[in-house]
Amino acid sequence: MQPRIEDYALIGDEQTAALVGRDGSVDWLCLPRFDSGACFAALLGDAENGHWRMAPKGAGPCTRRAYRPDTLVLDTEWDTDEGSVRVTDLMPQRDRAPELVRIIEGLSGRVTMRGLLRLRFDYGSVVPWMRRSGGQRVAIAGPDSVWLRSEPPARTWGKDLSTHSEFTVAEGEKVAFVLTWHPSHEPRPALIDPHEALRASVADWQAWAARCRYDGPHRDIVMRSLITLKALTYAPTGGIVAAPTTSLPEEPGGVRNWDYRYCWLRDSTLTLGALLAVGYQEEAEAWRDWLLRAVAGDPADLQIMYGIAGERRLSEYEVPWLTGFGHSYPVRVGNDAATQFQLDVYGEVIDSLSLARRSGLPFRPHMWRVECALMEFLRTAWRQPDEGIWEVRGPRRNFVYSKVMAWVAADRAVRTLESHPNLVGDLEGWRAMRDEVHREVCEYGYDPERNTFTQFYGSSELDAALLLIPRVGFLPPDDPRVVGTIKAVQEELGRGALVRRYSTEGPALDGLPGGEGAFLVCSFWLADALHMTGRTREAHEMFERLVGLANDVGLLSEEYDPVARRQLGNFPQAFSHIGLVGTALALFAGRGGQAG
């Protein structure tokens, strides 16, 4: 039976990540980086595309599983007729080589364990050559080399181009497996002590979690969201990927399957705000510095997303040998949305840099020059139609949210000059631009008959991004147009606590067939908007329902299907967890939570 997206848990080392199923199978892992080819791709195909299962012989899904408190170390346990056993999975933060550690511990009785390792490099397409070497097994194909060892040595054998293992563990006994990747032209890295790696990983994660200033309601799920954001950070550069996966479907069996293993600028302000509010200044600074490096260059060439080190070429192609999660095809690698023109990113970048300045992050001398260059481009470019925040693959339009974010860019630039008179910039010109954008949006982007802002000029459709209008300061929360927009979005795009981004049922706005689930970050935005407009009780109720959608280990995907009651889209999704943290801070500041 095909697993559901919520059946998976995340482990990682802040350079890549793996998904572990309830059945003890690692079904997704890209090595050595988030955006590398997967060596385990069963998530998007079948077992022949690569996976590593470790479970009691003949067992199905686990009896229970949980992360160790305030860590990314996963314990999965089975109760069997023979006894009980635990598999502990982790990826130690690396010095050089990525490693996946699996420690099997007998809890009671005497349990027979079965292991099946099927390595398939390049997204399940390349079968490596496997051999024994010094009591270990090594798999090599092209640039990739993977070593497998166990302590104490467990019985292993090769069959059907896979490595099998079988052994027993009694109460108190432990067997540890270590999978190590390195470039095939380099010597094998030094061996690690798996038990010391476990001890150090638990200590490191718990020390990091202890720095969190949030101590309000739902602290566990807020902390899990923050740990997830940390896990999705590419430590060498500070970039944060939107998700560690590609092509998990927004509609089962549909074509809305995209690669999210990149860094989106649209996430920048909300990410910075969440990190700074709960005390993670170092991570916020690293993200700000990644942002500055990524956007350097001609402002006309600003992209909506970049690679984890700031790469610009993210060419999209299909992987024909993978059938897709739940037969949702095509499977895509790369993302052509990187070439789209989206006005909102200019506002998000300038807003992020303004927030960094106000929050006291260390000064960067070129930061203001970057903002001025972006503003000079935006002075005329804001009038152009664009693809909008949701990266629609239909025609360009004058999206209202895009224009609002152009206003945000001008507003933050003006405010920066007003509060820092030593900086040089076109204060009067940017004020005039700010006023002109505001007038135009209110004239062409607002429907007075329905009392709501619309998705684009002349449209009757709505857009959940409009919920951010009061949050960014375009209009105050009590403005009747804001109240009307919130009401319209709730009625037309909402379903209980869930909100869709926009309607996929009318004209072909996004150029794609089929539909999608409710977008979780938009649902958190609705809770925020209700709270800002005085409907705090409703906001609390929404938040309670939304956190209840997380899976058993506290993870959220991009979307949710309220009919089938299942998660959809890439998983876990940084934007969803950022939304959860932001709403918790908004609702519980002054009740034990920190607002920053």
What does the model show?
The protein is an alpha+beta fold and 596 residues long. It is built from 14 helices and 28 strands. The strands form seven sheets. It has a 15-stranded antiparallel beta sheet that branches. The protein has a three-stranded antiparallel beta sheet with strand order 26-27-28. It has a two-stranded antiparallel ribbon with strand order 16-17. A hairpin with a 2-residue loop joins strand 24 (494-495) and strand 25. The longest helix is centred in the last third of the chain and has 20 residues, at 400-419. The two termini are 46 Å apart.
Distance between the termini: 46 Å
What's the β-strand tally?
28
**What's the rounded overall pLDDT mean?**
94
- Give the helix proportion (percent range): 25-40%
Shape: globular
Strand content: 15-25%
Look at the helices and sheets and give the structural class: alpha+beta
Major sheet, described briefly? 15 strands, antiparallel
H/I helix tally: 14
Pfam families: Glyco_hydro_15, TREH_N
Organism: Streptomyces dengpaensis
Keywords: Hydrolase
InterPro entries: 6-hairpin_glycosidase_sf, 6hp_glycosidase-like_sf, GH15-like, Trehalase-like_N
Please write out the topology:
Layout: E1 8-12, E2 17-21, E3 25-30, E4 38-40, E5 51-56, E6 64-67, E7 74-79, E8 83-90, E9 99-118, H1 121-124, E10 129-133, E11 136-141, E12 144-151, E13 155-159, E14 162-170, E15 174-183, H2 194-209, H3 219-231, E16 233-234, E17 239-240, E18 263-264, H4 268-277, H5 281-295, E19 305-306, E20 317-318, E21 332-333, H6 344-358, H7 367-381, H8 400-419, H9 427-444, E22 446-447, E23 452-453, H10 469-472, H11 480-492, E24 494-495, E25 498-499, E26 518-519, H12 520-532, H13 536-547, E27 559-561, E28 566-568, H14 574-588
Antiparallel strand pairs: 1-2, 2-3, 3-4, 3-5, 5-9, 6-7, 7-8, 8-9, 9-14, 9-15, 10-11, 11-12, 12-15, 13-14, 16-17, 18-19, 20-21, 22-23, 24-25, 26-27, 27-28
Domain Trehalase-like N-terminal: 3-133
Protein name: Glycoside hydrolase family 15 protein
Organism: Streptomyces dengpaensis
